[in-house]
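Q: I have two molecules that I believe assemble together. Could you output structure tokens for the complex as a whole instead of separate predictions?
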Amino acid sequence: MNLKLQIKDFTMKILVPVKRVVDYNVKIRVKPDQTGVDLANVKMSMNPFCEIAVEEAVRLQEAGTATEVIAVSVGPAQAQETIRTALAMGADRGILIQTDVEVEPLAIAKLLKGVVEAESPDLVILGKQAIDGDNNQTGQMLAALLGWPQGTFASEIKPEAGNIGVTREIDGGLQTIKLNLPAIVTTDLRLNEPRYASLPNIMKAKKKPIDEKTPEDYGVDVTPQLEIVKVAEPPVREAGVKVETIQELVDKLKNEAGVLS
Amino acid sequence: MNTLVIAEHDNQTIADATKKAISAAIALGKDVHLLVAGENCADAVADAAKIDGVAKVLKADDAAFAKLLAEPLADLVVSMADGYSAIITAATTNGKNFMPRIAALLDMPQLSDITAVVDANTFERPIYAGNAIQTVKVSSATIVMTVRATAFPAAGEGGSASVEDLTSTGDKGISEYVGEELTVSDRPELTSAKIVISGGRGMQSGDNFTILESVADKLGAAVGASRAAVDAGFVPNDYQVGQTGKVVAPELYIAVGISGAIQHLAGMKDSKVIVAINKDEEAPIFQVADYGLVADLFNAVPELDSAL
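A: Yes, here they are, computed for all two components at once.
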């Protein structure tokens, strides 16, 4: 018997979508033909905001609040490694919806809606954005499709019976809202600091199950709707001059750049 | 078919970011309607009607819209979306929150954070933290997009738009506003300040930010920080300048003790003049700085303070 589960007056099942992206330390290169970013032989990792989402779900499980944590990814066969990372951090099982198409956020949200309908989680925690497309859309779109409330850019969450308090990072500071469950939460940086998976947990993760699915299983057409005309390098900013003293700096800002009066 | 812009406001005045999004909307070449949803928002509506280029202001005054929560606002916008070929808002935390909900309810894709209007269906937006610029063509029935405010000039004053009252679609009650803890500051807001002075990990502690604040007060500047400084707990997240924080483009940006990680550069490299103060002469920040000073910030900043 699990004593923790007995004394909790509520428990929840959590779904955590995770994305495989270019590692955040990699300096990306635009392809010379301007069709996209060169991903050949580039180190790939779990999107940092997704790591925060997995961490939060695993902490809720360790606290006895979550009964099961399921990691799901939409992507190529290699996205399985990203799911394994989530399993090594503590998720219980995985679902890979395999496709080689670069799926747009709306179609990802439709696929995730299918997963939610099959798994009936009480809470879906996602990263607020992926560091490749920088869209910041999927969580909000999933909430819309499900008719669920959304707590985006969370820096703190407090689940209770039937609802969840979410503190959000907003432009002027912090905002706290209360959402009925089931709900969608997207993570911001300060929610937690993700753990590194230990070697024993990495080994254990290899035995955890990953279901393999396709977009067709959910009846979702993942054909992109937006046409990428080109992907270009941003304009390069030239390095300027070094100054030797504060006096010289202030002088140049006043008399050369004209930005100080 | 017209273009709808969703306003951000405090029930009194229309946010600067919205005026910039209106400039992007005008570039699409259609009539621009501005939705002001709020509670007791008559003053904001009056402010909206004066914006140059706005043909009509749509007013939705109801407690449901007091805090622009995504759930009731999205329902309102979807109820009135017919007749609009584009729905636009500024990419503020509010806009980023509610816009994808609207897009999905309309079954339309969204473009986030556009930085240029190429033509009525084609737009530029940064990807990979601004390390690449994507040109995207939209063929959906409704263009749904958020606008990076720093990339557009603010629409001016001088308009006299008509005002139409909308019927509230109410609130389903699945989300509830509890409270806010706003950073209290007499300094200008980061994204609209003419001068920004930011500190990085080199500041060593939150207390040391007082030396930046002193300079900021002399210059009328806003104070920002790198993600490293936020991660280290020196300052709150709303100070963060960078791809995962705020994007700024002031006249003058002073980076103090900031190494210049890609993610930080993405948030400030469109500033007109960049100054870097760092004791490490190899720091990447010097590659984008117009004026670089290799010095210990704990000497240089107080010296700057007294030189002003």
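A: One point stands out. The helical segments of chain A are 3-7, 48-62, 79-89, 105-119, 138-146, 199-205, 246-255.
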